[in-house]
Amino acid sequence: MTDGLDQVKAWIVKRHPDRDDIAPDLDLIENRLIDSLSFVEFVFLLEQVSGQSIDMDTLEVDSIRTLEAIDRTFFKTRVS
């Protein structure tokens, strides 16, 4: 797990003290770990820790549905 993904996971766990861990394939939206009230703040966090600008008009929800998807989309090394 990358440092950025660790920060994302810590952000979610901090808001859900009933959880001490999040499985990489757990659906964050269906399980209400990211809801409509925290969505914009969550996207801002992703921008900060990944160093990428995120266009809300083209953001695909599946790219942030699980920690695995977030890691694949925002933190895996990209070949130019």
From TrEMBL:
Pfam families, per database record: PP-binding (PF00550)
Carrier domain span: 19-68
InterPro entries: ACP-like_sf (IPR036736), PP-bd_ACP (IPR009081)
Gene3D superfamilies reported in the protein's UniProt record: ACP-like
This protein's name: Phosphopantetheine-binding protein
Organism encoding this protein: Streptomyces chitinivorans
